[in-house]
Amino acid sequence: MRTWFVRGACGALGLAAIGVGLSVLLTDPYIRDPWDVVRWLVGAVLLHDGVLVPVTLGVGALLVPRDGPRRGPLRAGLLTAACLTVVALPAILTPRPSANPTVLPLDYVRDWLVAVGVVAGATGVMAAVRALRRRR
After folding, report:
1. Does any domain span residue 83?
2. Do 87 and 112 sit in the same domain of this protein?
3. Residue 104 Rama label (left phi>0; alpha psi -120 to 50; beta)
């Protein structure tokens, strides 16, 4: 298959997805002002490029060795733990109890710690496997 065909197909799918997104944005009755969505998207891009990426690169440069068998697993583990933290932070920081007991009923701090612990364990296993493979 030629690369121009694959690129063209990907471009066509992307344009179709943009069309569907714009259609939903302009016709969904729950979206009262489409400019609110545009402002939110601009804020998300600025937050990602201005805060998340520099912090991730800085932490990765400080904590991960420059070379060696542990570099890849450590970077992947740190990035995964950071993503888990960003997703869990709103639930963790929400004050308890609320007027409705069914809103955020779980122990999110414990669940986040378990998830980060699993990531740390998998990172340790992968780092050890890479170190053992390199010795052979």
Report:
1. yes
2. yes
3. left
Indicate yes or no: pTM above 0.85: no
DSSP letter string over 52-69? Answer: IHHHHHHHHHHHS-SSST
Q: Cα torsion at 77, 79, 81, 84 (round to 10°)?
A: -140
Query: What are the distances in angstroms from CA 7 to CA 12, 20, 41, 63?
Result: 9, 20, 26, 38
Domain count, the chain: 2
Let me know if residue 3 belongs to a domain.
no
Domain carrying residue 130? 69-136
CA–CA dist 98, 113 (Å, integer): 23
In total, the chain counts a number of residues equal to: 136
Q: Give dist(CA 17, CA 13) in Å, integer.
A: 6
Per-residue model confidence as pLDDT tens digits over 5-17? 999 999 999 999 9
